[in-house]
Amino acid sequence: MDSPSKDVEFEKSFNEMISTLPKRKSWGIPEDYFQYQGFWLHPTYLKGVVSAQQQFQAQSTDIMLCNLPKTGTTWLKSLIFAIVTRASFDDSTSPLLSKLPHEVVPFMELYHADFPTYRDHGVPVLATHVPYSSLPRSILDSGCKIVYVCRNPKDSFVSLYHFNTTILTSMNLQPLDLYEAFEMFCEGVSVYGPYWDHVLGYWKASLEHPDKILFLQYEEMKDDNVLYVKKLAEFIGYPFTSDEHRTEVPEKIVKMCSFENLSNLEVNRSEKGGMIQNNMYFRKGKVGDWMNCLTSEMAERLDRITQQKLSGSGLSIHF
Ligand code: PAP
């Protein structure tokens, strides 16, 4: 991939491969979804996923943040970045005060598609929405730490729906009808969906490898954020010292990365960022906002599907 002829070869084999995949109309963005290894992806991401599968080299010291879109990426990126970089920056000097969390922690599949051989080893944190079963082999072999965050499917759907609608409106495109998007989500056709398969893949892996995969829930973190930030720091190998506990460093990190703080920073209120503007990553940041969007029938249906899909897995998520 680092020489032009390899680029051409990759493009050719990728185009051949994608032409054989099942395809579905997406939620309105003029790029279809393609079903790759059981999950629905837009070609832009898919190209990065395939490229990463072929050549991404994880290091044992890496920390991979994995999750579905709209389940807490921005929040967890900022928390992990703040924990890992706290020897260099505090809550008045952190790059998080002037950069979007997505700028300081890149996405493996986006950055890998563009810069396949480049790695910034300074901050060993990367994020991905890739399902567990499709992770590049080197992530599993390197023994690096994986942090997975899951969010209840009703809030995840509503967040995704609003995000999608905002993007389409900004592109002067017709947003997908709520009921149509809901039908597709229930069928498993959403970006990196089916939702339940994604969650269960990481859940089962976290039971098998509890020392390598930390499974978190957005709602539990919201409930007791300091406790979970301490757990997170411990798990990724950056535990807080007793001195840091005494001077309330975990509390300061929680505050700096809170929705209230981040969403009010100039950089995160800004409309820069092209198709996806910075401010689109910050909407309400609440648990239970689905109540303002879904009918009780829709909520019951999603709950029923979730109960069926998770039954027997031992995973109980917040409805
Ligand atoms: P991404 O996967 O596309 O990067 P992601 O950050 O997971 O998006 O999702 C955005 C959601 O996280 C939004 O939820 P909402 O639509 O229900 O409001 C956003 O508001 C929320 N969010 C962003 N930052 C934070 C934060 N610091 N704490 C809690 N929630 C947050």
From TrEMBL:
Residues 61-314 form the Sulfotransferase domain. InterPro entries: P-loop_NTPase (IPR027417), Sulfotransferase_dom (IPR000863). Pfam families: Sulfotransfer_1. Gene3D superfamilies: P-loop containing nucleotide triphosphate hydrolases (3.40.50.300). Keywords: Transferase. Belongs to the sulfotransferase 1 family. GO terms for molecular function: sulfotransferase activity. This is Sulfotransferase. Its EC number is 2.8.2.-.
